[in-house]
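Review form for a predicted model. The reviewer records the input and the model, then writes brief findings.
Reviewer: anonymous (R2)
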Amino acid sequence: MDKNWKGLAAKLPVQPSGALKTETLMNVYDSNALGYPLVLYHRESVELADEIQQTMGPEEWAHWERSRMRRWGARCTCSNCREDFIAGYYQGGIVLTEGPDGQTYEGYAEPGLDASVYFNGETITCPRCWTTAEVTHRSELRHGRTFQVLQAEVVNVDRYTAVMYWLVRRWQDDIGSDTTNFVPYAALVVDLDGKVRRFRAEMRSGDVKEAVWVPCTYSRDPMQLLYYSWEAENHRKVGGWTFNYGPDLDGHTGEKTALDEYIGAEGCWPGAYLHVWERHPQVENLMRQGLAGAVAAAIDRQLDCAATKADLCDAPPIPWVDWMEVKPHRMLHMSKKAFREIRKKNWESEDAACWDRYHRQFPKADALEFEHCRERIGSKAVGHLLEMVAAGWTDLVPARVVRYLEKHDVLQDGVQLLIDYRKMMRDAELAETEETLWPRDLLAAHDRIAQFWTGRAKASYQLGFTSTFIKYRELEWTDGELCVVLPRTEEDLVAEGKTLRHCVGTYGSEHCSGKPIFFVRHYRRPERSYYTLQINMTKAIPVEIQLHGYGNEHHGDRKQYRHKIPQKVRDFCDRWEREILTPWFADQKAKATQTKPSKLKKVSHEPATRTA
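Model under review:
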């Protein structure tokens, strides 16, 4: 038993490494990761008369004093350059003149064609240093404003490996001060017996260099404990950043943890990973054998999407790993031969989870069979087929579907086409024979049944469309070039399908039952159909089902040619899902949990990001 671990308290550093400080400060100020610089302002009377350019006698001076004009202006201070300047004042905001190049200029101004009003919370370009800053009234910073985020880094102390946690603290006040410092917060140390120990920093004066490390009874993950930050909901958040450079762990207590592999796989929750390793030391075998990315993603995804205290866990479960086994291939329920091939493929967490489902539904299947399907159609499509098999469509076995799609050269997006075709055919109560179930020309058969459904009278879903629009309308968004809009009526959905020559017009029921359709269109022409996006909102996190444009990316007389989705459309949808959809979904989940009778306290969570 390691009885000397408490002696590390005197050896732990009280300030981060120089490289971490440099990277973090660049992130804070260059990307505004902890708020923007501020343009602080308050109302002040300003003089509009020109300066005196000549010598005047007493009478002339008295006349000039009587004729001076004064107006309410704003005295501003930029917290970035610490310079003062004068601007106009209008209804609680500041007025700045804008030049033809978009640059703002200081000086008294009134609203007009060449001058704009900026209110609290809006960003402007400082006319002195040309830095983007947030307009803020001084009264709002009477007591200062503090932004904080945890920053983790791995260090070696003697023979021990430790994860040090620093609070990166940015302080802003009403006189224009804007400072950032690093405050010691906590440390997780792997002792000589392989146990994870925690220390907390105790500040006994205002000087961080005099901080004292105190051993703790419990080894809670510091990133999963609430801490203060002004911008967070209820001013409390969890999570933080992780420095993606670390020392060589050979000869130290972290050597067998594979913590370096986790950091190398861009893992953001090193404390959670150490707790997984402490509970399941064999996780090192997966990390060293090509599954580091999958393990890191499985841990991080659960914690990144946590919306309540119940979603947090010191050692997040990885459900696709059999912890009763030690050897990597047995932990994943596959043969040695299959594992030797698959370890080279850099599986993601979704791939491993999909294989776990595949194995459970087809216990005798070999992992190489699954890998063949995954490489041809992707894990998402394989997962859709597994759902169909579980729902009773027993002939849609992934291996058989892949052979069929390969034979007819419709591998890309062929799975969704086949599923849509099957559903429409069954809803139309058409005869299900071998020839109709597996048509020779899938695209033509799909178009025929879609056209049949488009012209067929169906019950109106208008009530469901209205409620769906009200529920998801906050997700409508634009980046200035493209936009996401929701269909208002079933006719909108049918028209979209007719224009783009695909089957979205038959998706009214799915749209109203948790798998809504979103239209991706040009911002300047939102009435023109462009691309169609479907999201599954019924899972623990929102999952994209499909994104398609004209003819499901097929064109020609018989749709014999294929084109690609433009990269700007793909990037736009990814950004929308990351910046708009995921935070909105987490907020809705938190609100739903809060309304239920429970003793759990709500946790405001900020997804973990990286500084380097």
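Findings: Residues 309 and 603 are 6 Å apart (CA to CA).
Further findings: The first helix runs from residue 18 to 30.
Recommendation: see findings above.
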